[in-house]
Design brief:
Elements lengths: L13 H14 L4 E3 H10 L4 H10 L3 E3 L23 H9 L6 E2 H11 L3 H10 L4 E2 L8
Parallel strand pairs: 1-2, 3-4
Helix pairs in contact: 2-3, 5-6
Length: 142
């Protein structure tokens, strides 16, 4: 049974809202929590990640260090990836998973799991292929 719905916390019982707030605040350092920590909170509370992102935003806690390398980490640029080999299977998976020319965050995570690759590797492959990551599961970008 899911602890939280994906409705951004609007119809959660007050005590569940309080647990969620406490988890986010306890995990924050200098008003920030890493993407991976937000996902661990979602897992622990049996919530969808978007609820965590919405509540963090409401609490003015910033999500940092995107696991795909989209923000607040040392993101590889196209030039940084120029000479780097990207596995052909990874390239193929990314290219076939596009939705309207973009790679959804959730799909990028699934590709990483399927290929037993790092999430950042998938993000770097998308960057090298000049493909944008879309629809952040935490709601950080669309």
């Amino acid at each position: 049974m899911e602890f939280f719905s994906s409705k951004g916390g609007r119809d959660l019982k007050e005590e569940k809202k309080q647990v969620l707030e406490e988890e986010i605040i306890a995990s924050a350092v200098n008003g920030q929590i890493p993407c991976a920590v937000a996902f661990k909170i979602a897992e622990r509370l049996k919530s969808v990640p978007r609820v965590i992102g919405d509540k963090a935003n409401e609490l003015k806690v910033r999500i940092i260090n995107c696991q795909l390398g989209c923000f607040y980490v040392e993101k590889a640029t196209h030039e940084d990836l120029e000479g780097r080999f990207i596995d052909i299977q990874l390239t193929g998976e990314v290219q076939t998973a596009l939705v309207q020319g973009k790679l959804p965050c959730k799909v990028a995570f699934q590709i990483a799991k399927k290929l037993k690759a790092g999430r950042k590797q998938v993000g770097d492959a998308a960057t090298k292929l000049k493909i944008k990551i879309a629809d952040c599961q935490l709601g950080c970008f669309s």
